[in-house]
Amino acid sequence: MKVSxxxxxxxxxxxxGQNGLNRxxxxxxxxxxxxxxxxxxxxxxxxxxxxxHKNVIAIASLKELxxxxxxxxYKPEADTIKQSNEEGIPILGTSKETFxxxxxxxxxxxx
Amino acid sequence: xxxxxxxxxxxxxxxxxxxxSMSPSNIVERAAAIGLELIAITxxxxxxxxxxxxxxxEEKGIMVLYGAEVTTKEDVHCxxxxxxxxxxxxxxxxxxxxRPEIKNNPDLFGHQVLVDEQEEIIEEVEPLLISGINASIDxxxxxxxxxxxxxxxxxxxxxxxxxxxxxxxxxKDLKYDALEISKNTxxxxxxxxxSYIKNARFIKSSDAHxxxxxxxxxxxxxxxxxxxxxxxxxxxGIEGREIILS
Lengths: 111, 246
What we know:
- The structure holds two protein chains of two kinds.
- Chain A starts with a helix and ends with a helix.
- Chain A has helices spanning 3-10, 34-40, 55-62, 78-87, 98-110; strands at 13-16, 27-30, 45-49, 67-70, 91-93.
- Chain A has five helices and five strands; from the N terminus they run H-E-E-H-E-H-E-H-E-H.
- Chain B contains eight helices and eleven strands.
- In chain B, the strands form three sheets. A seven-stranded mixed beta sheet of chain B has the order 7-4-3-2-1-10-11, sandwiched between helices. Chain B has a two-stranded antiparallel sheet with strand order 5-6.
- In chain B, helix 2 (50-58) links the parallel strand 2 (38-44) and strand 3.
- The two termini of chain B are 18 Å apart.
């Protein structure tokens, strides 16, 4: 499934990194500890977090993640948006909390 | 120049996790007994006990820096150190304005009290002091430097509440003055795990929550005299002033 399809299905906001919307999503990972994501997320994962710091994109890029979803209406910081555009890794947003959006994502990716 | 025995990370009874014996007078007495000459009072998200400690410490010739261990929005603990009352009030106002409204539960976290020189309780502080301030690490770094203070991410090697645990690595444009390592680690381990920060300056302090922890992590600052200016030069490694870890 592509990032753009997930955006459509779950009605997500696209904050930045539009040129990465064609990336393929292979799974998901959820954590707010960036060192944990660095250690355990896998290539092609879509990542849900409430962290908005620019290190989010550096780690997403290092692990070749498909996209980042910010939960609970959190918005990316200006330099996070800039990095997201440069790396072509979309930052998406939802007003839902982690538990809820993860449930929806899980069902969608399981199909 | 000579080496001054220094501990830049000491909590008082105001920190919810601080031992009840950590009154300003007890801290000064302990610091004097073990020969500390420069200390910083760094309660969680509060500077309110600094002035009392400084007042008591003056007689003993111990220099006291005003500080706080600030919890950023990302849950990263950072030491923020200042020289004078004007700076202390500026950062205190910032902390008060950006603190989330959560009331402390003393049964869970411990009491947050301010005491005077005679160890009488003056005030019980209501808002929970250990929760994250509503400002990012970058914003807090900027404000600390605008006010004229020093900014030092705390215990970077710890698996909780450290820049490494919360942000994965140190953002390369973060303007820190030094990095604190905890007493559980060595410089060898730090360099092995994080080779990219080998050019940083490091401090080691006790993070004391009880009296017998004060000064347990030995650090000396080599400088001309006890003054803010010399302190800053030592932390920044300017003109022969330096940090000596042991």
